């Protein structure tokens, strides 16, 4: 049992990788550490399943609350299903690793990663991403790594590697980049309208750190000296050569207009080839149906790619052209906002719901618990692509696409003090043929503006594809499903006219160059501006107010010392206001009071009560008070909720008063003026002073 450890300073701390002690029966296992955050990652492999036609890679990431010295929230004190954060991190691990395995390798591979210790400043996700690459690199598996992964922030105008949680609160950028020493493979980033030139600078800076992390892993591999399996791509069975006879027919079918018609034309060619090449699948020496499916798919890929490189896309567009755009708002009654965005055969139907602070989502994890006031949920029903599939909970893809759209729109939302609503957006994909997540960004923007959310700028998104053979490459704006499936890249960029708010790159090849990244960002900006113009024809700006069906919200601030007075004993006062006006009232520790109700009248009435309850008595001000008790020496008058003052018998009238009862009785309302507040906060009132002020100054006698 020998421990091997490598480390070097990257950013402000040492990044270390250690192996040799834990999980020695795994194919590869490492501990990664940065600061006081430690992640453990292991990989294992199993035999390929018969007939499988894809690489069965599974990545899992878990954050144990114990790593931060915490108990899980709720009744069950044990972690359950993966959280949204854990699911998103598992996707971040999977995406750059998948293209780095040898072609044709289809054995089961599983990667599991756990955060063992957290300093609540450094996130365990980046450690696990590097740990996954390191574990695979020292395993016998045919992994063509290593890969490095880094998070980059921009704090006070400076790019910072491995930013802390506190720094990310103020950072204008949250960028994750994975790649080899030579190229970038994966990007996931969100910014506050960052210009393209600044984004490229950030990407290239991140890639330098990626190279350092790859060097560190190579140092580990050199010490471990793993014995790699001798993987050889299976020899062809000759079926591909026979299928070549259908190359021309398939090429013509792939140029058919319309997704469904194109699919039908391809299906007809496939059935013809199958009938001729495998008339009897059970006959001795016949090609297997699995082999036929694989080889026909490879022929499809070859046809689509060579056609695109010839300058012909499946639907006839040029590389930089968008499909037809259609936008509409206010499709549904009663909901707080609704919109539809259509781009070609991709359609997002969006609804917006506005709520109060009580509707915020509480999020618990290794870091401090926080509230989310904006949520975007993405649904991808099977009918959107003409398939039959049971309805289940959201899968990894739906969670990932929803979060991409959510974080791309989030930078343009109004400040909570300006617009104190909780906002939920639902994007239902009604039909899909390429980049439904970016359609969700556009649809969400339209829906928010229709709902009266005063966003600072409209956001649009587009996906750009790539077909690359050798040094020749073609970029494809607004990719189709086929171009995504058979192409090399899905590069999604969302943003406003001012800059990028969201960026995501997925590749099927082992990296792209700076030249391709620059060209993609330039091409995507042109498309984004064109989409924004189309969106603004449907609704040019956010509505001036929210829908009549939306709750009314107002906010006010009170002296924190008056919170107890507003709430009252056992909540009596605040409960009374809520019941009288049919509203809900939320009070924060800093004295911020939010009132929500069904209409403006209810909310304003409650606001007046809150203001009256928490107001301070002002000397010289006249109040409309209510007599609460009568004494021989005067009357006690309630001038503010819970606040009485004494109007002495001598202050009840300018004339002689023999008995207080001659002037007023309990329950009467009277105008009184505050004439003094003593050191013990006792209020002295005067009815005669209020009467005199109401009558105005006495007229001076005319001169003789």
TrEMBL record:
Its EC number is 2.7.7.8. The keyword Translocase does not apply. One of its GO terms (biological process) is mRNA catabolic process. Its cofactor is Mg(2+). Pfam families: KH_1 (PF00013), PNPase (PF03726), RNase_PH (PF01138), RNase_PH_C (PF03725), S1 (PF00575). Mg(2+) binds at residues 484, 490. SMART domains: KH, S1. GO terms for cellular component: cytosol. It is an enzyme of class 2 (transferase). Residues 620-688 form the S1 motif domain. It is found in: Cytoplasm. Keywords: Cytoplasm, Magnesium, Metal-binding, Nucleotidyltransferase, RNA-binding, Transferase. It catalyses: RNA(n+1) + phosphate = RNA(n) + a ribonucleoside 5'-diphosphate. GO terms for molecular function: 3'-5'-RNA exonuclease activity; magnesium ion binding; polyribonucleotide nucleotidyltransferase activity; RNA binding. Belongs to the polyribonucleotide nucleotidyltransferase family. HAMAP family: PNPase. Involved in mRNA degradation. Catalyzes the phosphorolysis of single-stranded polyribonucleotides processively in the 3'- to 5'-direction. This is Polyribonucleotide nucleotidyltransferase. The gene is pnp.
